[in-house]
Specification:
43% of the residues lie in helices and 16% in strands. The protein has 481 residues and is of the alpha/beta class.
Amino acid sequence: MLRLHDSLTKSIEEFRPMKKGVVTVYNCGPTVYDYVHIGNLRYFVFTDLLRRHLERRSFEVKQVMNITDVGHMLADADVGEDKMEVAAAKAGRTPQEVAAFYAEAFFKDIDRLDIRRAMIYPRASEHVPEMIGLIDRLLKNGHAYQVQEKAADGSTGASVYFDVASFPAYGRLSGNVIEGLNPGARIEVREAKKHPADFALWIYNPRHLMQWDAPWSRGYPGWHVECSAMSMKYLGETIDIHTGGEDNKFPHHECEIAQAEGATGQPFVRHWLHVTHLMVDGEKMSKSKGNFYTLDDLVKKGYEPRQVRYLLLSTHYRQTLNFTMQGLESAGGALSRFDAFADAVRQAAPEEAGRPTMQAEKALNDFSESMDEDFNVPEALAAAFEYVRAINEKIAEVTLTMRDREAALQFIEGLGDALGFKFGKGASEDEVPEEVTDLIAKRDEARRQRHFAEADRLRDEIRVKGFVVEDTPAGRRVKRV
């Protein structure tokens, strides 16, 4: 039974999708004005972990992740510089060129981290008609209002704002109820608004580089409206799971709920999942502190993307992760243990079928049960390492049976599929010549019979053939000299 912590109810609840066997998931995606950093990547790795586990639980996952390429402010104000415009001006390119460049960089990063791609990545700039349609619904049912604006050049047009007072449930996700909001703290106070917390759905600003025609004025959409509109288009008025970083709770997700439910009168999301931020060496990540890292930064330091992925997923998603270089080294060590185990099991050649073993089944059950409990990855990994230790002992003692080996192979492959890794670095059996494989089997038998002198002689003969056999605490490994 899968149980998830719902950010809205602040409790862990049993997950039941609306439609049997099918789960609809909307992930807040990247704003493509710059490279994504490791804080972003922690969130994207979690979305992949979520999808993998749902699919392993035999659900069909309909996953949508947006690409924000318009309407995202530097702050939560309704006016100001757009991040896309700032990046375009700095690079001497159009916003569209900037978006295309950094979207490609984003896909490169998630591919290197073995993150499965969503079924669709809708771009905000390509779904403005859907946003206009949603805003029109909100205007007609009294949840939004127009404000006439006057630009610096003297021209006039209408901006559209959501009336938070018309939606009593505003604030239930973040806890920022209207009465408790500090005007000007997160959303700019403007005299034209009915309430300081009212947020922009459509912005009239003729100086903005990206413009669309709408019934009320030419302009561009606010940041918050895009996710509501695109989620509803591709997944329906109500979805099973919506994810994001904890900083998205307010105002972004709070506004999403108000817009969607204000327009439809239906629940927008059944389960909200939010990933906690990370620290770097115990401090908040900041370019000014020199602790701001992208995936490329870490690769240039000599770390593998798989080390980054392992470290990012190894801490529970609702706990703060302290990202350190020592942590990356430890991640490499943990992966090496799984790699060595995978190689040792694949290269093992036991002759006896032996009795059925329950170790692998229990380990997989323990792993899955931990994942079912709101993705308790640390506990799941502990179960996996305990199984690895037990099987390594069998390999070292030459007591591994054929059934043990078959079960261990299924376990390591299942573990890799669940976590997003391919385990094993040594030469695989199909890479080892048959004559060497025969010598390895004879050496295994000699060790099983405790004929250690013969086993040593066979190891030397294997070396002459260009391969070395290593008996490590993690199990036997075979590799080229």
